[in-house]
Write a structure and sequence with these properties.
Structural class: alpha/beta
Strand order of the largest sheet: 1-2-11-3-12
Helix content: 25-40%
Number of strands: 12
Strand content: 15-25%
Number of helices: 7
């Protein structure tokens, strides 16, 4: 099978050309390091199957799957650095959004969560149970802050951050937790974002990591990291994910 490359996490339809340009830079850098990088990204299909494929050259995932279902099954490569409000050097926060426009809460300077109990009233819209940015980060913060999480019957699973924003804007849910890069994209591209505002911030977490097949050797990993650093701003984190406090779930 030919090598697989996938960068799905911020690949909104309006940004396909930008994602493809990002891949072209990385593809050329990988080829310069001797890798048989595919000409095009693989899109669609079952993400866990792509991440776990022995043909995976490089892929983008979430830190929660890396801590659970992918742990020991893939190799961590690096963490891209993003510059949306709420991002750090290889880290990000999730914004807690609620309905109706208003003044967004400023991004806190410390790494701690800023979540008042009244923010978490009503129904939660969340993309999926295995998402660090859209669900797990809130579970961890509520545990740390002594705040109650909604019952499973009070959670609307939407399948995507964008759909969570739409659900809150339409009143089908009262709040959602959206990673700051997706929130930045929504402010540019999603009309529903004008009907909600940032009411709080989750704790700072490791950013979305790049991974490769477990079959990638140590020398290949070094060359792959050189390619990533040549193609984009990125960092190799000592701890690219948080130890899981939840049972393993499919991402």
């Amino acid at each position: 099978m030919p090598p697989i490359a996938t960068l799905p996490m911020y690949d909104w339809p309006e940004r396909r050309a930008e994602t493809d340009a990002r891949w072209a830079r990385l593809r050329d850098a990988l080829r310069d390091e001797g890798f048989d990088a595919p000409g095009q990204l693989t899109r669609g299909g079952d993400l866990p199957s792509l991440w776990l494929s022995p043909d995976l050259l490089i892929g983008e995932t979430c830190s929660q799957p890396l801590a659970t279902v992918l742990n020991g099954c893939v190799r961590y490569v690096a963490t891209p650095v993003h510059h949306a409000r709420g991002c750090g050097h290889g880290t990000y926060r999730s914004a807690v959004i609620r309905r109706y426009p208003g003044a967004d809460m400023p991004v806190p300077e410390s790494g701690a969560a800023v979540i008042a109990p009244e923010i978490l009233t009503g129904r939660l819209a969340a993309n999926e149970p295995g998402s660090m940015s859209g669900y797990v980060t809130l579970v961890y913060d509520c545990e740390d802050l002594g705040l109650p999480m909604p019952a499973q019957s009070e959670i609307l699973w939407t399948g995507a951050h964008r759909e969570s924003i739409r659900a809150v804007s339409k009143g089908r849910a009262d709040y959602a937790v959206i990673d700051c890069v997706s929130w930045d994209l929504a402010r540019q591209l999603e009309p529903a974002s004008s009907e909600v505002h940032v009411a709080g911030w989750a704790s700072s977490r490791p950013g979305l990591p790049l991974i490769t097949s477990l079959a990638t050797g140590d020398e290949e990993l070094k060359r792959m990291r050189r390619a990533v650093m040549a193609a984009m701003e990125a960092v190799v984190l000592d701890s690219p994910f948080l130890p899981s406090r939840l049972p393993d779930r499919r991402p």
